[in-house]
Structure to design on (424 residues):
């Protein structure tokens, strides 16, 4: 079955969506990602959608849902690289993704995410976070 | 009734063409609505001669009741050309239509001479000719209006291109000085060009300056909020600057919620915030001291 890979980088998870999202794929990603956050105890998720050209209301809702679910599991979500056409579409659909942080590219998104995770738990050093969350 | 069969207009135009033409040109040049000096007299003469020729041709071949058929195609095209050229020369609609309506008197005079004492025939003929010339006059006005609308449309498009520049103030800082009233179409263009430039330059902050926007209503505010939300989704922050006191009052009275947006009174203030945002400071140079 077609899947979107989820990469682990320290205590962050990296998702790069490089195919056109269809509904089943989005649902699979939602299940996979929440499972991975719970398993690894990751504190940050970076979703790269720079190659996504088309979204519909369902995919927009799924992105918002994924961010909200990650938040419940104590992980911050940053969405990076949204195309102008996609941004306009989401706004016109009324999906302004209020709980989701955004950044222009992966580099900036990573910096933002690391800053957020650090601010969240200043005493925790990378690597230690693995065992203490989400079980 | 078959109009061509019992109408003497074709023969009349044929036989008295030069006489009618002379009178017509004289009426046009002397008329209260003539715009002497705007177009040369020779052009009036040429246009009149050409049109009368076309009309004679059409009347000879086609029906007098309707100007739809192929026989009238030449007349329609000729009139459209004249009307279009006059609309670009700055003539008013009535001045353009007068070109056709001023033909009535010379033709009616000629008809009177032709029919003499036959009052019934004269009235009948005048009625038909009158209806025909009215149709032609209305057609002129229609074409005139259409070409005016084309001009307006073209100007609107040109204005749209002119009025939406996205300028780069510093590395990572864009500014969008908006001038004129914002409507849906313009906001769409503004939104697209701003987002496109954000992507191209990787700018973190965009300043939307509305000093040149005369009025802000709920629709404009909504458009602004949409643009800002779309930019945020892409990962850039927007600052609105150039809000005049009256506009601030309007925004509050309308109940528009701009609390999620950074707003500043002047572009300078917004630029200062943007510099802080990208981690830069401005300080006096050492060269001056």
């Amino acid at each position: 079955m077609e899947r979107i890979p989820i990469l682990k980088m320290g205590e962050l998870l990296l998702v790069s969506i490089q195919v056109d999202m269809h509904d089943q794929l989005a649902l699979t990603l939602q299940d996979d990602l929440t499972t991975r956050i719970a398993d690894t105890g990751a504190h940050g998720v970076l979703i790269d959608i720079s190659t996504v050209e088309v979204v519909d209301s369902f995919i927009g809702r799924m992105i918002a849902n994924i961010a909200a679910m990650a938040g419940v599991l104590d992980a911050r979500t940053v969405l990076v690289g949204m195309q102008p056409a996609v941004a306009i579409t989401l706004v016109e659909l009324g999906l302004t993704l209020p709980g989701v942080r955004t950044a222009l590219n992966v580099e900036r998104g990573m910096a933002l995410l690391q800053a957020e995770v650090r601010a969240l738990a200043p005493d925790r050093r990378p690597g230690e976070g693995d065992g203490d969350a989400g079980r | 009734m078959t109009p061509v069969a019992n109408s003497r207009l074709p023969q009349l135009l044929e036989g008295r063409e030069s006489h009618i033409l002379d009178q017509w040109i004289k009426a046009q040049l002397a008329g209260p609505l003539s715009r002497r000096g705007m177009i040369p007299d020779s052009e009036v003469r040429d246009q009149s001669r050409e049109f009368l020729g076309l009309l004679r041709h059409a009347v000879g071949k086609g029906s007098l009741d309707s100007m739809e058929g192929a026989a009238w195609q030449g007349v329609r095209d000729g009139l459209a050309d004249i009307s279009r050229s006059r609309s670009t020369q700055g003539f008013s609609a009535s001045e353009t239509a007068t070109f056709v309506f001023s033909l009535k008197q010379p033709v009616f005079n000629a008809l009177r001479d032709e029919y003499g004492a036959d009052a019934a025939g004269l009235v009948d003929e005048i009625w038909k000719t009158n209806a025909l010339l009215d149709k032609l006059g209305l057609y002129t006005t229609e074409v005139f209006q259409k070409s005016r609308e084309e001009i307006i449309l073209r100007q609107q498009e040109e204005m749209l291109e002119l009025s939406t520049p996205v300028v780069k103030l510093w590395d990572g800082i864009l500014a969008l000085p908006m001038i004129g009233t914002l409507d849906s179409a313009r906001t769409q263009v503004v939104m697209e060009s701003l987002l496109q430039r954000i992507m191209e330059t990787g700018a973190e902050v965009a300043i939307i300056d509305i000093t040149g926007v005369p009025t802000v209503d709920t629709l404009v505010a909504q458009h602004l909020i949409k643009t800002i939300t779309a930019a945020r989704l892409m990962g850039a922050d927007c600052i609105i600057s150039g809000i005049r006191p009256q506009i601030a009052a309007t925004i509050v009275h309308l109940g528009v919620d701009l609390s999620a947006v950074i707003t500043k009174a002047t572009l300078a203030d917004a630029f200062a915030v943007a510099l802080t945002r990208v981690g830069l400071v401005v300080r006096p140079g050492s060269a001056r001291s």
The helical segments of chain A are 23-40, 57-72, 84-92, 106-120.
